[in-house]
Design a protein that fits this description.
Elements: E1 12-16, E2 24-29, E3 32-35, H1 36-43, H2 48-51, H3 57-62, H4 64-79, H5 81-84, E4 89-91, E5 96-98, E6 106-109, H6 113-123, E7 140-142, E8 148-150, E9 155-156, E10 159-162, E11 166-169, E12 173-174, E13 177-183, H7 198-201, E14 202-209, E15 212-213, H8 214-220, H9 228-231, E16 234-236, E17 241-242, E18 250-251, E19 273-274, E20 277-282, E21 285-288, H10 299-307, E22 318-320, H11 332-335, E23 343-344, E24 350-351, E25 359-367, E26 373-384
Parallel strand pairs: 6-22, 8-16, 9-26
Antiparallel strand pairs: 1-2, 1-5, 2-3, 3-4, 6-7, 10-11, 12-15, 13-14, 13-22, 14-16, 14-17, 18-19, 20-21, 20-25, 23-24, 25-26
Length: 387
């Protein structure tokens, strides 16, 4: 996390240290990490079952009442001097961060009208940029849970069939800056989750980079959509910011110009648009600053759509927004207009797509209480050559 990490965020992660290599839950507070199991044993043993273990899985499954109780306790502990002195902490600089939860399923949406419009213009010139169904439902695809990796994991350049049925390493490796939503409480098979129950199931948010091999994707995606061009790696930030921390970031969604089906109509339900501001850095240079605020589909609508057919939620399900391109693009295919307008970096090099050795870091902040900012941390990855 960074300098904005204070009591407004209190995100959860899984860490270890060289002195204590076992993985355990932690809470980020500035440049320190609260050792959560040790803190709970000392200050409130009744919460021990929810924070014990090498992942956050038990906490996710515990449900909204426990989430609320634990957050309230943490706020008390870090704001009351007597309690704060009792909190066991370790320097964040000494910690190794791990994938914070067991990913059950992974779904990626396509919720930014700006991104969908840009790609439509790039890939289908002369046609309507949005497909006929786009404003009727949140379009998504089912990804691979087994290739979701924690921030800092190196990304091997994928190989596959490119246009012309030529096999080889991807030459058009791209990023997708996204916001991810982590499901805690499961749902019952056959029972859709309504918009109003979004915060009863979603525990928190993380940052996502859904790496994309655009050339492999282009050859395979008709008629069934993304597969190998996406499934080789998806990076997530190591800290999960609880949904409650984003209360001051909630904003109305954009005005919709197509009537929505009842299960997606959020006109009379709580607003779940989010004012989240991202920054994308390539080799240390800021190349784009997208904003989530104008996303056409909200995370509550995405969850409702995922389950409207009766599909069940599992603890650890992860779904992502799709590329965030409000304000400025969240992918290189847009920033370089499919390679026609390469980016020129400060070192004198140019990029249409990623080169071996490139490092991408995506960070984000959101409004907190009393005009403060809270950090959503960062997600990073460096590109290695094909194997």
């Amino acid at each position: 996390m960074n300098r904005h990490s204070g009591i407004g965020a209190l995100p959860y992660g899984i860490f270890s240290t060289p002195d204590e290599p076992h993985r355990r839950a932690g809470v980020a507070l500035g440049d320190q990490i609260i050792d959560l199991p040790a803190a709970v044993r000392r200050l409130d043993p009744s919460l021990a079952a929810a924070v014990t273990g090498p992942t956050l899985d038990a906490l996710l499954a515990a449900g909204p009442a426990v989430w609320s109780s634990l957050r309230a306790s943490l706020i008390t502990w870090v704001t009351d001097e007597a309690h704060r002195d009792l909190l066991p902490t370790v320097p964040a600089a000494d910690a190794v961060m791990h994938l914070p939860f067991t990913v059950a399923d992974y779904v990626d949406f396509y919720a930014s009208e700006q991104h969908a419009t840009n790609l439509g213009r790039i890939l289908r010139p002369g046609q309507e940029p949005l497909t006929a169904n786009w404003k009727h439902l949140p379009i998504g695809y089912h990804g691979r849970a087994g290739t979701v990796v924690v921030s800092g994991t190196d990304i091997v350049r994928p190989s596959g069939l490119r246009p012309g049925a030529e096999f080889g390493a991807s030459q058009r490796l791209d990023i997708e800056a996204e916001l991810g939503f982590v499901v805690g409480a499961p749902s019952t098979l056959g029972t859709p989750v309504p918009l109003a129950d979004f915060d009863q199931h979603v525990f928190g948010v993380c940052l996502v980079n859904d790496w994309s091999a655009r050339d492999i994707q282009a050859f395979e995606y008709v008629p069934l959509g993304p597969f190998l061009g996406k499934s080789f790696a998806t990076s997530v930030s190591p800290w999960i910011v609880p949904l409650a921390a984003l209360e001051h970031a909630r904003v109305p969604p954009p005005v919709r110009d197509v009537p929505l089906s009842a299960y997606l109509d959020d006109e009379k339900t709580p607003s779940w648009g989010l004012d989240v501001r991202l920054e994308i850095r390539l080799n240390g240079q800021v190349i784009s600053t997208p904003t989530f605020e104008g996303m056409y589909w909200t995370p509550a609508q995405m969850l409702a759509h995922m389950t409207v057919n009766g599909a069940a939620l599992r603890t650890g399900d992860l779904y992502a927004s799709g590329t965030i391109s409000g304000g400025s693009p969240g992918s290189l295919i847009e920033l370089s207009w499919n390679g026609q307008e390469p980016l020129h970096l400060a070192d004198g090099s140019a990029r249409a797509f990623l080169h071996d050795g490139d490092e991408v870091v995506i960070s984000a902040v959101a409004p907190g209480e009393n005009g403060t900012l809270i950090s959503l941390g960062e997600v990073s990855g460096r590109i290695l050559g094909a194997r």
